[in-house]
Amino acid sequence: MTDFYERVYNAVKQIPSGCVATYGQIAALAGSPGAARAVGNALHLNPEPDRIPCFRVVNSTGKLTGAFAFGGIFRQKELLEEDGVEVQNFRVDLKEYQWHNAL
C-alpha cells in the first residue's frame, strides 16, 4: 500500500457517522489537494471495508459514487441511510451532512 493510500484511509476513518466527505476534501486531508481521482482509486481498493467507511465519500455535488464501489450505488445509499444520512435521488445534501473537519 502506498503512503498516499494510507493517508486516504486514515482520513476516511475520521469521518463521523451521519456525515459525508467529498473526494476533494479527503485528498486535501491526505495532503494532496487536487488528487480527488486518486482518492477514488484508493477507495476502490479499500483493504478493510469493515474498518474504513468509504461509503461516506461522495462527489463534490453530493452525488453517490458509481456502481463499482461498495457493492453498487444502491448499497451505498443503504449504508448511508443506516448511518443517518438522508439520500434523495442518489444525492446527499452537503449543506446538511458534509463533515466540517479542520480544513
Structural topology:
Elements: H1 3-13, E1 21-22, H2 23-29, H3 36-44, E2 57-58, H4 73-82, E3 87-88, E4 91-92, H5 94-97
Parallel strand pairs: 1-2
Antiparallel strand pairs: 3-4
Task: Name some characteristics of this structure.
103 residues; mainly alpha; two-stranded parallel sheet; two-stranded antiparallel sheet; 5 helices
Structure in words:
With 103 residues, the protein is mainly alpha-helical. It has a single domain (3-97), classed as Winged helix-like DNA-binding domain superfamily/Winged helix DNA-binding domain (Arc Repressor Mutant, subunit A). Helix content is 40%, strand content 8%. It has 5 helices and 4 strands. The protein has helices at 3-13, 23-29, 36-44, 73-82, 94-97, and strands spanning 21-22, 57-58, 87-88, 91-92. The strands form 2 sheets. It has a two-stranded parallel sheet with strand order 1-2. Strand 3 and strand 4 form a beta hairpin. Helix 2 crosses helix 3. The radius of gyration is 12 Å and the shape is globular. The mean pLDDT is 92.
Please write the string of helix (H) and strand (E) elements: HEHHEHEEH
CATH architecture: Orthogonal Bundle
| Relative strand content | 5-15%
Which strand order does the major sheet show?
1-2
The average pLDDT is 92
Structural class: mainly alpha
What is the distance, rounded to the nearest whole angstrom, between the alpha carbons of the first and last residues? 25 Å
Task: List segments where confidence is low: pLDDT < 50 over at least 5 consecutive residues.
Answer: none
Which outline best applies? globular
CATH topology assignment: Arc Repressor Mutant, subunit A
Number of domains: 1
Number of strands: 4
Under CATH at level 1, the class stands as Mainly Alpha
| Total of DSSP H or I helical runs spanning 4+ residues | 5
Helix content: 25-40%
